[in-house]
Design brief:
alpha+beta; about 525 residues; 18 helices
Length: about 525
């Protein structure tokens, strides 16, 4: 587990904006100390300080007026937590080049689960040196530590010297650190310090039961997690791909054509993994790592499982056209990665002799292209829902997520076999009915949209009752199919029943072909 901490994240963000991303490599200009301020405890206090300010005796949480009195030349900028969080998330995206399991640690740190990844970079020490050097060149002051548990790595990079901690050296590493390194909170650390328990080694010799009874069991939990006796999983900030293939480039690429060609090449390698699983990809993600550290993610879905490299690359052809203005290649991309976020079983189909298989699958291909170009929600399909009420029985869903379920035997079916109109109005419209045979008969004449119709034939009623468990339970409906003298056929309903104190209402709901 690799832990990273950025002690000067806010001021590094300002310095990168003032002097460029490589300001640490070329040296700091002659400039007053950088500080951030914000409202705290009914006063303006320092929320972040840089290295120069720390050397002058300024500290985080100090009153701004006191800091100006000590050093009038300081450069104070208002804090921006949103920008700091966006910067940390951008760094987390960049860290995906080492492992897809990246988690945020508060507002100034990251956790990376590098299990099984270190051999790709020459070992743990080589990986740590590489990531620290790259981040330094990008203008960040960063400390890192690698160990077998998140708690030990966190303590080593924030309260120790960092580096790679050998297996079995957890107790030796922790014993000289303050108890605050166990992530127990400021109040618990202060309570331990009052009793003279200032170092972690002071806790090793104490009985566990009285310690837990006095200060809470979370202290023992944090101690066991740091020592590696208790598992502590991290929560990755992004879903991990089921399959992933990447290509590191000796020379960065900028042109869209080159990106698509490389995507098609790595998609071929991806198809081998899908074939071995007997599956096809449904949702793909193309990750582009720019040389300056910025990361672009382009997602594309398919209406059916795909295992054809050409068709997978075709999805991103349409997506790149859609995000063309937002994709800034800058000085180029040095790493491309193609992830399969979701896959389904792949059914091999026998092609027709008379026609090509591509022609038979033209509808799914069209849905894929339009959805990739215009967005997943632009192409809608319909899915049945278990409800007798017509307007609730069908719901619109994105076609990408529904078309592949068309042959699924478990899909819901319609709740009735009765004839339904070809066109259903979005909302039932009120109408006037005349000379209806009460209590259950159809009308002999009705007016709808200011047009009077004489009923030639009628069929019904078909009684539809709403679900009793819904909050907005309406009255039951009696539906009729009416054919007028002109030949048009309508689907109308009467809501409610005739009573002494109530007269039911009539509504137009659909039109037959």
């Amino acid at each position: 587990m690799l832990a990273l901490v950025f002690p000067y994240l806010s001021t590094d963000r300002i310095a990168r904006r003032l002097w460029g991303a490589s300001w640490r490599s070329i040296g700091r200009p002659d400039h007053p100390p950088l500080l951030c301020s914000g409202r705290r405890d009914n006063g303006t206090r320092l929320t972040a300080v840089d290295e120069v300010a720390v050397g002058l005796g300024l500290r985080q949480g100090q009153a701004l007026a006191e800091a100006r009195a000590m050093h009038p030349a300081i450069d104070v900028v208002e804090e921006n937590p949103v920008a700091d969080k966006a910067l940390l998330e951008g760094i987390a995206d960049w860290c995906d080049r080492y492992t897809p399991l990246v988690a945020l640690d508060g507002g100034d740190g990251l956790f990376l689960d590098i299990t099984g990844c270190t051999h790709l970079f020459g070992g743990e020490q080589a990986l740590l040196d590489d990531i620290l050097l790259r981040l330094f060149r990008m203008g960040f002051k960063v400390q890192g530590a690698i160990s077998g548990s998140p708690g030990l790595s966190w303590a080593a990079c924030r309260f120790g010297t960092g580096g790679v901690i050998a297996e079995g050296a957890a107790k030796e590493t922790l014993e000289d650190m303050p108890v605050a390194c166990l992530r127990i909170g400021a109040e618990a650390a202060a309570a331990l310090n009052k009793l003279g328990l200032k170092r972690v080694r002071d806790l090793f010799s104490l009985p566990r039961a009285p310690l837990a009874q006095r200060f809470g069991s979370h202290i023992l939990l944090r101690l066991d997690q740091a020592l590696g006796h208790q598992e502590e999983p991290i929560s990755p900030r992004r879903p991990v791909g089921v399959l992933s293939v990447e290509r590191r480039l000796a020379e960065a690429v900028q042109a869209e054509e080159d990106i698509l060609e490389l995507t098609a090449r790595i998609a071929r390698s991806l198809c081998f993994g899908l074939e071995s699983r007997g599956a096809g990809g449904r949702f793909f993600e193309l990750v582009l790592f720019r040389v300056d550290g910025r990361v672009f993610r382009i997602a594309a879905g398919a209406s059916r499982p795909l295992r054809d490299a050409r068709k997978i690359a075709g999805l991103f052809t349409e997506r790149l056209k859609a995000v063309h203005d937002e994709l800034d290649a800058g000085f180029g991309f040095e790493l491309l990665r193609l992830n399969v976020l979701h896959h389904d079983p792949f059914e091999v189909l026998q092609g027709s002799i008379a026609s090509k298989q591509e022609d038979e699958a033209s509808l799914p291909d069209l849905i894929d292209r339009v959805s990739a170009r215009l967005g997943e929600g632009m192409v809608q399909s319909f899915r049945f829902r278990e409800s007798h009420v017509p307007e609730r029985a069908v719901v619109q869903v994105p076609a990408l997520s529904h078309i592949s379920d068309a042959g699924n035997d478990e899909a819901p079916v319609t709740m009735t076999r009765a004839e339904r109109p070809l066109r259903l109005l979005p909302r039932p419209e009120p109408m006037e009915a005349f000379a209806a045979i009460v209590p259950d008969g159809p009308p002999s004449r009705f007016r709808w949209r200011r047009v009077l119709h004489d009923v030639a034939r009628a069929e019904g009623p078909e009684r539809v009752s709403p679900e009793w468990w819904l909050d907005d339970v309406a009255e039951e409906r009696d539906y009729f199919r009416l054919e007028v003298a002109s030949g048009h056929r309508f689907w109308v309903y009467r809501q409610g029943r005739y009573r002494m104190d109530h007269r039911p209402t009539w509504h137009m709901h659909g039109i037959f072909a």
